[in-house]
């Protein structure tokens, strides 16, 4: 994929690329700090049919929404390259005994030797959560360890 | 009544009137420039409400308005952008210059106004109003469009051309003999080159001198520097406007953004005064006789701008609809066309030049943005069918 960069004299910069499905999208970075997310028309690929104005906070939120699953995917990829090390994404079911309890209560590391490296909640990644991190139903726990130990973590989180 | 009292009454009434007109323009979605010009026509010689004493004050305000207009324009670009735009778009820029300077120049020659007026009229039809065009692009959501960089770099090219054109025009209008005229133009071009080089090489030093964390200090330094350089430029026959433009270019980065934000209200005030002043100088009764010629000129130069935009966009690999949008975005004329006509009028050009330029800009400043708005749905329909 190639991201094209174009200078807009007096305004700022534009980055754009074409998606796999043939749609063209871009971001205009105004010098004032404003960001516009633009989507190009299907009929007329030169025309921006949608331009959404984003302030700093909104742009950050969008980055996190789009970026979080990618971070987990990249993490998995990194671990796959180390032999014998497995990383799993384990969802916390509503029936789990650890729902609404601090993560430390599960004593995962002591019992299995595997480590919880991140929690993904509502698309947001909480890296290296501490023992007092309270688990909620629907959280996805990213756990790293040997094949056996990570499987055990799954059992613990589901049944206690 | 006391002189100061009359001055305040008149000036206040003019500004208040402009404010009301600006609100109307905002509601109608058009540029306020044509309305300011009309206001000036109403207050000027032969108008409905001639001003008694404040005309001199307004004339100085207008001069400051030109300096501030060009200064803020220069602040929008930095020297690197100008150079890279010059390299990448030279051919489209030259097509723009030839196609759009021609209608004005040819008309002036046909009317028998002579070569000096032809040079001025060439400038009147050549320059697209970067202010109005930028507003059209942003209002219609065209900033993200792929033809927009082409349009913007043409505007940059035009502004750079102005830096060379204005000194030549000033020297020619001064009516100097061929030799001293050539010397004046030479000095002008040398000054422009030297300042551009300084801006490219030593821009950081100038910024270090001007920059200040305090807004008040920054404002005083920037405006002071611009007026000082404008004065020197005027003395060298380079035209004050170009001096201010070059100061704007020399400043870049965060400093330029800060200065732009600080100057915007000041520029709006004095630029409005400038448009009124041009209207003041123009006798409205003289406009009617040239109205038909102005309309014809507007039509022709609209078509030439359309052709320019389409040519430039096609070179950039833009499809048909985008080419037409690029053309239509370039149609509006505004501040610089009036600046140029103002210089010619001040130097005592043909008496019809002022009214013609006023009518011409009235038409294109009002109609250009409207045309862009009207054709948008048309383009969409064409693109869907294709």
Automatic annotation (TrEMBL), chain A:
<dbReference type="InterPro" id="IPR026278">
    <property type="entry name" value="KhtT"/>
</dbReference>
<dbReference type="Pfam" id="PF25991">
    <property type="entry name" value="KhtT_N"/>
</dbReference>
<dbReference type="InterPro" id="IPR036721">
    <property type="entry name" value="RCK_C_sf"/>
</dbReference>
<dbReference type="Pfam" id="PF02080">
    <property type="entry name" value="TrkA_C"/>
</dbReference>
<protein>
    <submittedName>
        <fullName>Cation:proton antiporter regulatory subunit</fullName>
    </submittedName>
</protein>
<dbReference type="InterPro" id="IPR050144">
    <property type="entry name" value="AAE_transporter"/>
</dbReference>
<dbReference type="InterPro" id="IPR006037">
    <property type="entry name" value="RCK_C"/>
</dbReference>
<dbReference type="InterPro" id="IPR058776">
    <property type="entry name" value="KhtT-like_N"/>
</dbReference>
<feature type="domain" description="RCK C-terminal">
    <location>
        <begin position="75"/>
        <end position="159"/>
    </location>
</feature>
UniProtKB/TrEMBL annotation, chain B:
<feature type="transmembrane region" description="Helical">
    <location>
        <begin position="33"/>
        <end position="51"/>
    </location>
</feature>
<keyword id="KW-0813">Transport</keyword>
<feature type="transmembrane region" description="Helical">
    <location>
        <begin position="287"/>
        <end position="313"/>
    </location>
</feature>
<feature type="transmembrane region" description="Helical">
    <location>
        <begin position="357"/>
        <end position="375"/>
    </location>
</feature>
<feature type="transmembrane region" description="Helical">
    <location>
        <begin position="57"/>
        <end position="77"/>
    </location>
</feature>
<keyword id="KW-0812">Transmembrane</keyword>
<keyword id="KW-1133">Transmembrane helix</keyword>
<dbReference type="InterPro" id="IPR006153">
    <property type="entry name" value="Cation/H_exchanger_TM"/>
</dbReference>
<protein>
    <submittedName>
        <fullName>Cation:proton antiporter</fullName>
    </submittedName>
</protein>
<feature type="transmembrane region" description="Helical">
    <location>
        <begin position="222"/>
        <end position="249"/>
    </location>
</feature>
<feature type="transmembrane region" description="Helical">
    <location>
        <begin position="97"/>
        <end position="128"/>
    </location>
</feature>
<dbReference type="InterPro" id="IPR038770">
    <property type="entry name" value="Na+/solute_symporter_sf"/>
</dbReference>
<feature type="transmembrane region" description="Helical">
    <location>
        <begin position="148"/>
        <end position="166"/>
    </location>
</feature>
<feature type="transmembrane region" description="Helical">
    <location>
        <begin position="178"/>
        <end position="202"/>
    </location>
</feature>
<feature type="transmembrane region" description="Helical">
    <location>
        <begin position="6"/>
        <end position="26"/>
    </location>
</feature>
<feature type="domain" description="Cation/H+ exchanger transmembrane">
    <location>
        <begin position="22"/>
        <end position="370"/>
    </location>
</feature>
<keyword id="KW-0472">Membrane</keyword>
<dbReference type="Pfam" id="PF00999">
    <property type="entry name" value="Na_H_Exchanger"/>
</dbReference>
<comment type="similarity">
    <text>Belongs to the monovalent cation:proton antiporter 2 (CPA2) transporter (TC 2.A.37) family.</text>
</comment>
<feature type="transmembrane region" description="Helical">
    <location>
        <begin position="334"/>
        <end position="351"/>
    </location>
</feature>
């Amino acid at each position: 994929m190639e991201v094209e960069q174009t200078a807009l004299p007096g305004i700022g910069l534009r980055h754009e690329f074409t998606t796999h499905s043939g749609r063209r999208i871009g971001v205009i970075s105004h010098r004032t700090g404003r960001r516009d997310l633009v989507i190009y028309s299907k009929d007329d690929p030169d025309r921006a049919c949608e331009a959404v104005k984003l302030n700093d906070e909104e742009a950050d939120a969008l980055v996190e929404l789009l970026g979080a699953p990618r971070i987990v995917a990249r993490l998995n990829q990194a671990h796959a390259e180390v032999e014998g090390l497995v990383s799993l994404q384990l969802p916390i079911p509503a029936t789990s005994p650890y729902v609404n309890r601090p993560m430390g209560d599960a004593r995962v590391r002591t019992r299995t030797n595997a480590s919880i490296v991140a929690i993904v909640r509502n698309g947001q990644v909480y890296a290296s959560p501490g023992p007092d991190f309270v688990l909620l139903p629907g959280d996805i726990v990213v756990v790293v360890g040997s094949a056996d130990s990570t499987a055990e973590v799954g059992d613990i989180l589901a049944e206690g | 009544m006391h002189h100061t009292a009359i001055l305040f009454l008149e000036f206040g009434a003019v500004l208040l009137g402009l404010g009301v007109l600006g609100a109307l323009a905002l509601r109608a979605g058009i540029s306020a420039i044509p309305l300011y010009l009309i206001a000036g026509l109403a207050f000027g010689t032969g108008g409905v409400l001639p001003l008694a004493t404040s005309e001199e004050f307004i004339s100085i305000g207008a001069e400051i308005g030109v300096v501030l207009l060009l200064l803020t324009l220069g602040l929008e670009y930095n020297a690197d952008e100008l150079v890279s735009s010059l390299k990448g778009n030279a051919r489209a820029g030259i097509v723009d210059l030839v196609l759009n300077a021609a209608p004005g120049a040819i008309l002036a020659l046909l009317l028998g106004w002579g070569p000096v007026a032809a040079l001025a009229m060439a400038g009147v039809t050549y320059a697209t109003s970067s202010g109005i065009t930028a507003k059209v692009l942003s209002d219609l959501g065209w900033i993200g469009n792929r033809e927009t960089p082409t349009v913007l770099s043409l505007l940059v090219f035009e502004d750079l051309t102005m830096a060379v054109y204005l000194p030549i025009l000033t020297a020619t209008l001064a009516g100097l003999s061929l030799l001293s005229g050539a010397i004046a133009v030479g000095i002008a071009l040398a000054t422009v080159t030297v300042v551009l080089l300084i801006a490219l090489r030593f821009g950081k030093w100038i910024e270090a001198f001007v920059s200040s964390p305090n807004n008040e200090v920054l404002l005083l330094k920037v405006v002071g520097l611009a007026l000082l350089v404008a004065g020197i430029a005027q003395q060298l026959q380079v035209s004050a406007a170009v001096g201010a433009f070059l100061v704007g270019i020399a400043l870049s980065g965060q400093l330029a953004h800060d200065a732009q934000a600080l100057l915007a209200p000041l520029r709006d005030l004095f630029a409005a005064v400038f448009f009124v002043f041009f209207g003041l100088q123009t006798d409205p009764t003289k406009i009617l006789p040239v109205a038909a010629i102005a309309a014809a000129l507007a039509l022709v130069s609209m078509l030439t701008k359309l052709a320019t935009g389409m040519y430039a966009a096609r070179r950039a690999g833009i499809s048909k609809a985008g080419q037409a949008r690029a053309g239509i975005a370039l149609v509006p004329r505004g501040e610089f066309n009036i600046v140029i006509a103002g210089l010619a009028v001040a130097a005592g050009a043909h008496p019809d030049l002022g009214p013609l330029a006023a009518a011409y800009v009235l038409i294109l400043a009002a109609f250009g943005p409207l045309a862009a708005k009207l054709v948008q749905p048309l383009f969409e329909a064409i693109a869907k069918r294709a």
